[in-house]
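Below is a filled-in request sheet from our internal design queue. Each sheet records the structural input a requester submitted and the sequence that came back. We keep these sheets so that new team members can see what a complete request looks like end to end.

REQUESTER: design group, bay 2
PRIORITY: normal
MODE: inverse folding
CHAIN LENGTH: 169
BACKBONE (tokenized):
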């Protein structure tokens, strides 16, 4: 059987979604002095870096980019971070991932910050599939897409942005 891919978002549409999300983040945090943008590797990290780039152009506040490397297949929280978690004390943290499916990855992402007194935490995903097993909601999403469980969302993001696309398979 042929593996059919349907293009959901092209490179330009992805950038439009990122720009819109960046403006929403700015509107919700215009009084802040600094935002922490935590990207969940790999594609959430690329998306977070692009959000930071847009926010650095439009926002008066400082943005700090962090990355989380989670073992998404583990039955317990197993995360590597590239920063001292205490730099997030009393700051706004924006947790970024590419797709929200069951909510497990974002729940693990929250777990990294549980022992830190945050001002607030918000979530960003490019695509929300609406198949949550965990009580996770996104604050900012590029698009919500109702799919069947057997379908797969394939987000292709690179550091350079040359091959950006989102496919339904």
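RETURNED SEQUENCE:
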């Amino acid at each position: 059987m042929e593996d059919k891919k349907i293009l959901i978002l092209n490179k330009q549409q992805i950038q439009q979604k990122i720009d819109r999300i960046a403006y929403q983040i700015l509107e919700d945090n215009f009084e802040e002095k600094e935002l922490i943008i935590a990207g969940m590797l790999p594609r959430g990290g690329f998306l977070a870096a692009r959000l930071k780039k847009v926010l650095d152009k439009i926002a008066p506040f400082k943005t700090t980019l962090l990355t989380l490397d989670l073992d998404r297949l583990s039955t317990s929280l197993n995360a590597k971070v590239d920063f001292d978690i205490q730099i997030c004390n009393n700051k706004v943290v924006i947790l970024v991932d590419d797709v929200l499916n069951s909510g497990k990855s974002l729940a693990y992402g929250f777990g990294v910050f549980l022992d830190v007194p945050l001002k607030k935490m918000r979530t960003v995903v490019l695509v929300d599939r609406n198949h949550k097993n965990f009580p996770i909601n996104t604050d900012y999403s590029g698009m919500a897409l109702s799919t069947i469980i057997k379908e797969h969302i394939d987000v292709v993001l690179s550091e350079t942005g040359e091959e950006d696309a989102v496919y339904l398979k």
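SHEET NOTES:
- The first strand starts at residue 6 and ends at 9.
- Strands lie at 6-9, 34-40, 62-70, 79-81, 92-100, 120-128, 140-144, 153-156, 165-168.
FILED BY: M.R.
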